Each structure stands twice: as C-alpha cells, then as structure tokens.
Amino acid sequence: MANEIKSKVILHWNCRGLVEFPEVIRLHGSHIQEIYLKWNKLTTLPPWITELFNVTNLYMYGNRIEQLPVELGGMSQLTVLDLSANRLELISACIGNLSNLKSLFLNDNFIERLPVELSQLNNLEILSVSGNQIVALPEWTGSLPRLRELYVDNNQLRELPNRLTIAPELTMISVCSNRLKYLPLNGFLSAPCIRFDANEYLNYVSYPLLYQFLSQIHTTVVRDREYLLAFGCFKTHYDTNVLNTNIKLYIKLKRLYEINDVIIELPRQMLKIHEVHENVTCSLWELALRKVYTERYKHTLDVSVSPANVTILYKPLKNTKLDFTLSTSYTLYNLLTNGPTGICVNSQCQQPIFTEAWIIISINHYAESMITIVLCCSRSCATAFAAHSSTTINLHWHSIN
After folding, report:
1. How far apart are alpha carbons 336 and 293 in whole angstroms?
2. Segment 260-274, tens digit of pLDDT
3. Are 108 and 130 in contact (CB under 8 A)?
C-alpha cells in the first residue's frame, strides 16, 4: 500500500472492504491530490485528515459514516467533497470552513436541514442533497454567489426559497419527487433549467415563469406542453393534510373543461389579494416595501410571447445597505433581501410586489389545461392586462380562507 501511494497523486481504493481510513496515507501520502474511497465500510474520518494538505478532491461515497470530525473543516484546500450514500443525519458546521469548495455532494443520507454555516461557501458551484429528508431550503441558498447547480430531488420540500429567483449564476435547479405546492411566482434572473417532475400537488405556475419554461421547449406540440414541462404535475390534487395560514383559492374549472374544480395555494409571502374589479387602496405596509426596494434595486420584468421569452434585470443601486436596528423590522429586512414575490406584468409599471397583489387566474393558450397566475400591483394594471392580453382565458375564483 505504501509503494502504491508513493507512485500516485490520485489514489483509487474503492470497494476494498476498508473499515478505517488507512493511516498509511498519513505516513506516505502528503503529496496525494485526490482520494477515492467509495464503497468501503468506513464509519468516520480520522482527525489527522487535516494533515493531507494537498488533497483537493475527497470521494467517500457509499460508506457508513454517521458524523464528521471538526478537523475536516481545516481542509480549506478542498474543491470537491462527496459524502453521498452514508448515514449522516446532520451536516457538521465545520464544512462551512471549506472556503475553496466548489462541489458538495450529500445525496442519499438522512439529512433534515442545511446548517447556516454552509452560507459561507462563497465559491460553491454545485450543491447536491437529493435523497434526504429536507422539508425546507433556507433562503440563503439563493445568496451563494457562484451557485450554478442545485439538486434536491427526492426530499420533502413544500416550497422553494424566493431568493433563488435573484440568484445570479444558476443554470440548473432539480427538485423532482418532492411535495411542492407552488413554485416562486417571480421569474428567475438567470433563467435556469428547472426540473420538477413528480410533484403531484403542484397545480399552477406564474405567468412569467411559464414563458421562461416555454422558451426552453423546442417543440410544435401545444396540448401536451404541461407534460413536457413536468411529468406528474398540474393535476387537480391538493394536499388536504397540511394545515397552514397560506392563502388558498378555489378555481372553477368544471364548466369550461369538464374536469374537477381545483384549489391552489399561494406562497406564504402573499398576505392579501384582490380581484380585478376591486377598487381598493394598497396597504401602507406594501407601499413602504415597494418604496424601499425600488430605491435600492432595479428589478424589471419584460415578458414577450412571440417568441416566448422573459427577460429580467436585477442590480443593486447606490446606497443599497439595508440597516434596520429595530427588532420589529426583521420581517421587513427578510422580505427585502429575499426579493419581491413578483414584478407587475404591466410593462409600463414594473412595480415590485411583496405581500399584496391584484390577481388574475387564467388558462393560457400556449399551455392548455395549465392554470396560470398573473400578479399586478394595482387595479388599473390588472384591468389593462385583462383587456389587452390575448393569450389567456380568465377563470373565476374565490378565497376559501
């Protein structure tokens, strides 16, 4: 083993029945750059692993590791760490110290949450945590500045962080086989490919998100586009076992399409909604959020339906620091940093929308049988959209809570 180590910089010791991390690597492997110990029987990593100063890639897939030593955090040179198919229930906070980490694979463990220390991984490009028991992703996942690919398939997700919509580098989000009830209503800044098959409770999408999806589909098929977007979604299912305070809308479809009426659930950020004809004044809370946000960020939405496309501009303006000293402003701070729930679809308006909106529920000609939701910042914008849009059939709805 020592002779093999001395002659290599990449060590492949997969499937060897190892029950301990070989100390011979410590004695003779200071030059090793990549270590593959997949499909062994390791239950932990040794504290001295931090002495392997040149190791940049560490692959521990398919072992029996239950916890990680804090010394692992000293391997700041690591760029790839694969701990998939082990027995981890918690992610050690020490991983947050791996400042050069680009790829982190934690698939097929027993993880229920991501620790806040992972938000320090400013160089992370790939985060893969599929096959765990994660119920919610923290909003800070959308603030990882270089994150390109996010894989969270086969978990228990009920929603996605709104802050993902303003993540600058995202190219792929995969959240198949979860329990998603809705996707973010805002369009995504980086227009990533989003895979979300087998979310049976997901039964609608937003207007800008639909056109981002359609722009990625190169096909002449119209009637079955909802199946191309996501197989196993856009049914009339609703998760009646979950009790929460989110606004729920009852949509009348039976008369139009001879299918069951459907209940949709709005994102938790949305606290108050209005129909097109409601001539009411927007709350001071919502107006304050819009005012503060537009003074600090330029965030616009341009929806083009021929060809289908959505362009989003988001950039900080001068004096963007959000400084709130009162504890009562914590909710305000979170809403602003997580980004608006949507941008008004009126191209002449472009107001951000946070907690209150005028809503139009419709069926879109470009994706028949798929419920689409349109957000407007005021009655006048909603009326203008309803009068001039030729791509939708408006549906009747009412709030059931």
Report:
1. 6
2. 788 899 999 999 999
3. yes
